[in-house]
From TrEMBL:
InterPro entries: A/G_cyclase, CheY-like_superfamily, Cyclic_nucleotide_synthase, Nucleotide_cyclase, Sig_transdc_resp-reg_receiver. It holds the Pfam family Guanylate_cyc. One of its GO terms (biological process) is phosphorelay signal transduction system. SUPFAM superfamilies: CheY-like, Nucleotide cyclase. GO terms for cellular component: plasma membrane. Its EC number is 2.1.1.4. The keyword Nucleotide-binding applies. It comes from the Eukaryota. This is Atrial natriuretic peptide receptor B. The keyword Transmembrane applies. It is an enzyme of class 2 (transferase). Residues 133-209 form the Guanylate cyclase domain. One of its GO terms (molecular function) is acetylserotonin O-methyltransferase activity.
């Protein structure tokens, strides 16, 4: 499948307001750029490219997307509680894309014991924990909700939900490790806390509310 076809299919599933596409190609002729933009790309970068320039373009598109999402949320919901930028969901997406160790440290996305090792210059290897408790939470009825609620409204709703769960994790000392679609996974005991099960049990009632 060509890059043009890939962009076309992605755009059929997701609008630019939710998923910007930056096409990077060795083809630099005018007709190639025009074709890429016609297929749904929001930007087109020809190889060879400068890393700093590409990073700046990515940040610009992310800012534009977030601003558009906030504007649409205001228009659709008309409620002051939705005026905050939808940072939680996008932060998770950025976290998935981040490969830089310093970025992870700066945003406090790793367990504290792992952060200490990285800051001390140690090499982090897989660790064994004798006992942990894993919480698997699911948004019941999400497919039905997705069919009934406008996409941007659904994104804002999920953003608010996952952000609140992240905040609960931080308050209780748990660690949010993954979210995929309608599920959210948190773990306790990763820091060898012997009260890991009680910790998760304290987490559950407010997360349901």
């Amino acid at each position: 499948m060509s890059g043009y076809e890939t962009a076309r299919r992605i755009r059929e599933l997701y609008p630019s307001s939710l998923l910007p596409i930056i096409m990077v190609s060795a083809k630099a002729e005018e007709e190639d750029i025009v074709e890429g933009l016609k297929c749904g790309a929001d930007d087109y970068v020809s190889k060879p490219f400068k890393r700093a320039e590409l990073a700046a373009r990515i940040r610009a598109h992310i800012r534009a997307r977030d601003a558009f999402a906030e504007q649409q949320a205001r228009a659709r919901l008309g409620s002051a509680r939705w005026l905050a930028p939808p940072a939680g969901l996008w932060a998770i997406l950025h976290r998935m894309q981040a490969a830089d160790q310093q970025w992870l440290l700066q945003h406090n996305l790793l367990p504290r014991n792992v952060q200490r090792k990285l800051r001390n210059g140690e090499t982090v290897v897989a660790e064994h924990h004798g006992a942990v408790t894993v919480l698997w939470a699911e948004v019941v009825g999400l497919p039905r909700l997705a069919a009934e609620v406008p996409p941007l409204e659904l994104v804002v709703m999920l953003n608010s939900l996952y952000t609140s769960w992240d905040e609960l994790c931080e308050e209780e000392g748990a660690l949010g490790v993954d979210f995929s679609g309608s599920t959210y996974v948190a773990v306790s005991g990763h820091d060898d806390n012997p009260q890991h099960m009680e910790l998760i049990l304290r987490y559950v009632p407010p997360s349901v509310e």
